[in-house]
Amino acid sequence: MRPWFLLVVLLSAPLAGxxxxxxxxxxxxxxxxxxxxxxxxxxxWWLYTFVTPEFGEDSARLVVAEGLDDDAVWMLGISSExxxxxxxxxxxxxxxxxxxxxxxxxxxxxxxxxxxxxxxSSGDAWSFTLLGQEWSASIASSSTTSARVVAFxxxxxxxxxxxxxxxxxxxxxxxxDDDGVERLRMGLMDxxxxxxxxxxxxxxxxxxxxVFQNSDVEVRDTFLDxxxxxxxxxxxxxxxxxxxxxxxxxGSLVLKDHTSGTALSRAWGSGSTERGAVGSxxxxxxxxxxxxxxxxxxxxxxxxxxxxxVQQWSLS
Length: 316
Hints:
By secondary structure, the chain is mainly beta. The protein folds into 2 domains: 3-195, no CATH class; 205-310, Jelly Rolls (Sandwich). It is 6% helix and 53% strand. The chain contains 2 helices and 20 strands. It has helices spanning 3-12, 81-90, and strands spanning 45-52, 56-68, 73-78, 97-100, 106-108, 111-113, 125-130, 133-142, 146-153, 158-164, 169-176, 182-192, 197-213, 219-224, 236-244, 250-256, 262-268, 273-282, 287-295, 300-315. A 10-stranded antiparallel sheet has the order 4-3-2-1-12-11-10-9-8-7. Strands 13-20-15-18 form a 4-stranded antiparallel sheet, with helices on one face. Strands 14-19-16-17 form a 4-stranded antiparallel sheet, with no helix packed on it. A hairpin with a 5-residue loop joins β11 and β12 (182-192). It is globular. The termini are far apart. Residues 1-29 have low confidence and may be disordered.
């Protein structure tokens, strides 16, 4: 039995039947039959932990922020603005943003992907695209309140996830790549309805990612502030920095827009660190110039930049 399968079983078992979320009406736990599409409402929410090898563990409360009847989609956002920024630039939450009302399909590259196939019955099989992979999926087991899906890609990746009808959304998800590395693990911690407060979503596109290491010379690079698939200009650029400077070393990073204005600037001294910093700067369409200088054996500075269209809701 594969380790990733054991992990999903262990993650899923404590959560079964203990969550208060949108419920499937008219059925009892464990009753035989297909799992049908749950009923969502604005204000429904799910609290998840996310674990990735690059960025460790964080958490996010996903909230149904709006139902767009004309587009037949729900809008899922995050209750924390900082987490919205973080997820926009790190890209490890595929379930943010638009979700179709008819099948809870999520969007990738502008197209809805049938990650679920309601009504969900054991043995059903289908395909979809997610996380940059083409998946062949099948339902390994199901009841009126739960369904477990396993999926494999031609590149040798594996997905294993459980939909919880009692909570109305995912209970757990694990993605393992072709080298056996667990790329993403999601676990549902709590769920409910009637959320009140601000909800955020940044519809983002990756613009730049690089790791700078010890060098005797200044490194210069450029990227364009453009390219969202919708054709709409970005509201902000979201940045992520992870820096570690060795003893006796130093580091600096300057980002300038096309007007030569300094949009972002950092300097690090000997032995300093800046772990997982995230923030945003106003978008100024055009070319950006990056200047970086990192010295000291073992020193490194990672920079990621994404362009984002900002959406926000206030629920009461």
